[in-house]
Amino acid sequence: MSAATDWRGAAAVDADEAAEAMTAARLGGGARRLLGELLAPYRRALWLLVAVVVVENAARLAIPYLVKVGIDSGIPPIRRDDDLTVLLVVVGAVLGATLLQAVARQLFLVRSGRIGQDVLLQVRRRVFGHFQDLSPAFHDGYTSGRVISRQTSDVDAVYEMLETGFDGLVTAALTLVGTAAVLLFLDVELGLVALLCGPFLALLTNWFRNASARSYRATREKVALVIVHFVESMGGIRAVQAFRREPRNQEIFDDVNEQYRAANLVAFRLVAWFMPGIRLIGNVTIAVVLLYGALLAYRGDVTVGVLAAFLLYLRQFFEPMMEISQFYNTFQSASAALEKLAGVLEEEPDVPEPTSPVALPTAHGELRFDHVRFAYVEDRPVLPDLDLVVPAGQTLALVGTTGAGKTTLAKLATRFYDPTGGRVLLDGVDVRDLTSDTLRDHVVMVTQESYLFSGTIADNIRFGRPGATMAQVVEATTALGAHDFIAAMPDGYDTDVANQGGRLSAGQRQLVAFARAFLADPAVLILDEATSSLDVPSERLVQQALRTVLAGRTAVIIAHRLSTVEIADRVLVMEHGRIVEDGAPGDLVAGGTGRYSALHDAWVESLA
Amino acid sequence: MSTVLGPSPAEAPAGAAAPPPADVRSLLRLAPYLRPHVVALTIMLLTSLGVVALSIAVPLVTKALIDGPITERDAGAILPLGLLALGLGVLEAVLVFWRRWVQSNAVLGIETAMRHDLYERLQRLPMAFHSRWGSGQLLSRATTDLSAIRRFSGFGVLFLLVNVVQLVATTAVLLHMYWPLGLVVAAAAAPIVWLCMRFEKEYVVVSRRVQDEQGDLATLAEEGAVGIRVIKSFGRSGHVGEQYAAAARTLHATSMDKVRLSARFWTFLGAVPNLAVAAVLLLGAIGVGRGALTPGELVAFITLMLSLVWPISSLGVILAMAQEAMTASARILEIFDTEPAIVGGTRRIERPRGHLRLEHVDFAFPDAPDEPVLRDVNLDVAPGETVALVGATGSGKTALTALVPRLWDVTGGRVLLDGIDVRELDLVHLRSLVATAFEDPTLFSMSARENLTLGRSDASDADVAEALEISQAQFVHDLPWGLDTRIGEQGLSLSGGQRQRLALARAVLARPAVLVLDDTLSALDVHTEKLVEEALGRVLGSTTGLVVAHRASTVMLADRVALVEHGTITHVGEHRELLATVPAYARLLSAEAWADDAAVSV
Ligand SMILES: Nc1ncnc2c1ncn2[C@@H]1O[C@H](COP(=O)(O)OP(=O)(O)OP(=O)(O)O)[C@@H](O)[C@H]1O
Ligand SMILES: Nc1ncnc2c1ncn2[C@@H]1O[C@H](COP(=O)(O)OP(=O)(O)OP(=O)(O)O)[C@@H](O)[C@H]1O
Ligand SMILES: [Mg+2]
Ligand SMILES: [Mg+2]
């Protein structure tokens, strides 16, 4: 790691390195497969397009031929007896060819554009969906910047190929083949001379393919670095400004920006060799044909008309070559992007859906941890061996020092992660045997971070249950004591919470996040510090609401303020991933010597 | 759509200047970026013109060959003319290479410089700007839009120029060769120009929509990633997936409009030269037949004409590119044109004492100017004194603290630091005097050390250790790589309390004259909280402190308490005194309420 990247620090799984390794292993196979898969539904339409292009190109290629006919057979009758018939027929044919070409072209552009857009839509949905399927553990390491980079800049690269792709490639390929055939038909000898350029073109293209694959892969990775840094610093702009981080950020940004530039420069320079190379081959061929053709014409082996047509066709032969090479260039760039996308799509969710899921239409809400072991980082167990039964309907409070593993326990119950050993059971069923939909229907967690989506307050609350009516939303907020502040907002429930809830105060955000969970109405409700940012009266209101809502429901309440614990049937004290005390709150306090009792004393003291 | 995303940022900047139009003017305003590359651009232009000249010259050589050696049976002239064609061909390739080589450097330089400036500007724009713009929209400007401009400034402009020059030059040569036919060709220009103008007008609308929708989609992609934990805990992947798909479908529909528009345009552009060929063939053949023209001339004429087909039809692509670049530059100028509303003054405080004073402070967020969040706030915090801000959720405490480091500016009244209006102070200086531990920790995915030293990059290891101790964040040493461990994005690889303590240590480490703690002990357990409070007590003994508190325990850190109610400070006094005399305060912090319950639960 260079001095320039020291600031990033060390991590167990370095996403950059992982990404490098991934692409090195797959080497484009994934990209081709993905492209094939994406295009599979359009196989027929693509053949139709090819047919359209054949027509279009036949019409296009016919024009120089018609010109030749016009000159060779149209002029003599005029010379002889001013007879325009042949010429007029030929000109009529030119007009017909033009019309045909235009119709075919229009059809082709719209159709191929549609296929491109359809494919793009499909890529977007698949990639977004797949990212959603991947576990939080994956996202922890991958970072949102990279997720965004895949879905923006990589998809854009694919888009660029699709936009110009079919058009350029199909037309160009057909023109090549068609023109080659016409050249041979016009004059075999001259045609063969012209086609001598083939091997050179193949060699050059092959070189470019290999070299550019590598360099475009590098640009994809570098642009991801730019995006990651950009997104993160804009997301935390308040801290950046308050702590005067701007100059350092600028330095880091300049560094990744420069790396991206350098990677691009390598790619561009390859193109700078490749494109003129193609042109050089073309020009040399034209000159050779001209020379040789002139000799033949001089000897009278070919007519002037044939030579003229030949040269016209040769031009047509090489102009699409430029297009092919341009396409080839975007194709290479897109393959690098597709490779990245394929890499994501091939990423197996490490919290996989069960192969034969167990149905659980209604849950009682019994939660059981059976010798659960868990570690985020190998050899650093957070939960060494957790054994716990939460009977259905019980309200359990979980307290303990920060970093003890309370949130981790909750995340195992909601299957953000799978335990490294032991089982987590809901109503006796291993949560790994439940589909994620089933599990979420029964177990909902209010996370420690109250993340809101941009959109209205009502949208955010309805996130817990999209079908909920406005009346139900209001009922939930009223119960939590959040209705008043929402109603006082300029647009009430339709107030836009702006960027990730920036329009609301911290406590208001927490209330909205709470209401969201309330509305979801699950059998097991897990509250992770869900009231920590509320003022005391608001917290009391929430608590009162909880008393009614939690009746008949299993609840795990994680809290540092013991005020929250008062509604619990049972308290667990956690230390270093172990349960050190377990009992009814009253009993634990009455014991007088235990940890909970000490916590309680400290808490009562803190109220003074 | 808009229910999902709210007003699109395109229309958001209320009160800001009208967005720059997507036309040549906005593109030209970015022209200064070309200046450092004048030499390169000149070379690019000259080599391109050279290429055009050569592409005209080669058919002329052909003509010379056909009319000369072949017709006049002069074998000796074949070789030199052939070699000439070869030489010209090679020269053309060399020129193309040269242009591309130079161009790579230049266009990437331009793009990189713009991205640098964009980022710089974004970092300077105040919270008022950032709270309005989703980072997806910003990102799409920094990537997609910049590459649109890069593409145009490199390839587009050049080809536009070259194509036009080639069209004009070739037409001139054609006119010179045989003016009646030349006129026919020249006449074909009229429909082309007309078409281009119509196309421009329609295309600008569609391409702006596409670019904005791409930004919206990026915002959704970002939310899908950042909010993944909430989405998971509610099992709403399907729901957000649908939202994303809906936005993607909107983009799909708009893009199809764009496809259809360009298809029509490109088809027409392709047809016009062919029609001209038909006309020229007709008239030219008659001309040859009647002896007004040699066959060689006609062949050369038509060869030249056909060489125009490509420049004309590629004009369509280039114009689309140009239009996209204009739209992109308009979008980028929206950011460059937003003046940072918060700029520093020039004054500095040599010996900061930390005397903080708020005088008749009013504050309203720009998106709700009629509903002030703070009204006539008056507060005087003596040097070294700590004042707690207590108030109900949403009463304006955070807003108040944000005014001190000028994350937001007051809309009325003033904030004084050591007697100087904060708006007169150098901004960097001011922010070095004030450090805030925010209510949400805001950590970055970089090493723990880098996160800690955000506000003071020259902090020694001893300083860091001390700050860690004060905030009880020694756990950092136990992380796999100690201080060098990378903290996950937003600190998500830490527990809630660990995040909060790290953010606290960061603020303490900055050694500010004014320390602002916005409810920074909420995620700590009672024991840890007590330890932190003791240590903080030492720091706050000598530092001016502004402590937002919801709990009595935190209030204890302060010498005095200010009660914030509905955006104004209604009472200032000592905790016990307020508890006894102000019912509203007692309601907020009443120990009894809990103590009663605690007693009950025992
Ligand atoms: N994603 C992660 N990757 C690596 N380590 C983690 C991750 N999340 C948590 N940890 C570590 O696991 C331990 C337990 O964290 P957890 O979040 O469960 O604590 P907690 O009991 O909820 O604490 P708090 O009360 O502060 O929220 C901590 O030491 C933390 O640093
Ligand atoms: N960007 C914004 N635009 C408009 N109004 C806002 C914005 N941010 C916050 N508000 C409103 O301003 C008021 C004060 O918010 P502030 O964050 O200062 O509250 P607070 O006292 O810190 O509350 P909490 O204790 O919940 O953190 C709230 O009613 C909030 O809805
Ligand atoms: Mg936690
Ligand atoms: Mg606040």
TrEMBL record, chain B:
Q: Where in the cell is it found?
A: Cell membrane
Q: Report the leader peptide range.
A: none
What InterPro entries does the annotation carry? AAA+_ATPase, ABC1_TM_dom, ABC1_TM_sf, ABC_transporter-like_ATP-bd, ABC_transporter-like_CS, P-loop_NTPase, Type_1_exporter
Where does the record place the ABC transmembrane type-1 domain?
A: 43-324
Where composition is biased (Low complexity), the residues are 7-17
- For this UniProt record, give its keywords in alphabetical order, as a comma-separated list: ATP-binding, Membrane, Nucleotide-binding, Transmembrane, Transmembrane helix
**Superkingdom, taxonomy of origin:** Bacteria
The entry's protein name is ABC transporter ATP-binding protein
Organism of derivation? Nocardioides kribbensis
